[in-house]
UniProtKB/TrEMBL annotation:
It comes from the Bacteria. Keywords: Disulfide bond. GO terms for molecular function: oxidoreductase activity, acting on paired donors, with incorporation or reduction of molecular oxygen, reduced ascorbate as one donor, and incorporation of one atom of oxygen. Transmembrane segments: none annotated. Residues 185-325 form the Peptide-N-glycosidase F C-terminal domain. PROSITE patterns: PROKAR_LIPOPROTEIN. The lineage of its organism: Bacteria, Pseudomonadati, Bacteroidota, Flavobacteriia, Flavobacteriales. This is Peptidase.
Amino acid sequence: MKKLITVLLLSTFTFISCKDDEKTSQDPSKTTIKTFDNVKVAFGDGLSQSAEGTFSFPTNSENIKTIKMFIKDICPNKECDEWDRYANLYAKDKTTGEWYELGRFINPYWVGNEKLERGYEIDVTDFKSILSGSTELKIYTETWLAKGRKYTVEFDFEFGTPDYKYSAVVPVFQYNKSSIDGVPYGTAFDTNVFDLTKQINIPSGAEIAYLRTIISGWGHATPNDAGGRGCAEWCYRTHHININGTQTFAHDLKAIGCAQNPVNNQAPGNWKPDRAGWCPGMVVPARFDNIQKSMFGSTFNFEYKFEDWTNNNGNGNAFYAISTFVVVKSNSPINKATISN
């Protein structure tokens, strides 16, 4: 990503209100709802890096089998911000007012994702308790140019018998407002601001529970790994989740095949070399970790741990933008997991 030196952003938002959202599917077992329609996010000229809107989704969530989100990143004739920008889409929890990160992606160089029939596809079924009825959405891009990016976003709701009738989701933490709002890597940070240690209680009525994590690194800090790979964009690292002090889950932030990206018209642009767990013009993958059923109904300690490395501050900073959620499911009505410090 293009390195930022010093920027002060005063955020404003574009608001979109949609009372009668467009439904395009002709299949009675599925409904397609268009939300943002060719909406522009940008920096400068009175524009904003974010757009918000309120949209109407189905309310019978217990009969929803899957929800897929499709994001068209529209850039005809190279008219958009040409850099590989951090971007994501959120839905607001109606109870707490907190924004939940549904998915994250990185813009391709110079072009949009028109080579993908419906754009980026992200399974957001885990958030069906949030994506119900009148729902506020927000789309964000870390663009620093007035050219910005334009997006169209659709949701496919497939009806049928789900794996479990009821589900609930809650964030463990979210440090994901932008690439540089992530957790500093390789240096001391304020644990009151970035708290990677929590206590989690899974409802005893849950039949399955798991963690859903999205993480991407930014920065070119030294010392470099072999081949001049700076942290945290290029350096391959393994992160761990400790449960009750025991190393339990591993997240390998390594190559995911940037050169095989179907958005292969990114010219000019340094899109083929592998980053640490992400690529320009691709969705940042979600990582899933199943929680043992023996832990349901009791409180356990959670800690997210980065691999040891010391930033010598010789060439900028390193950050990990991260969000982790707990998803619980049951065939009986279920409450969210509870998270405490």
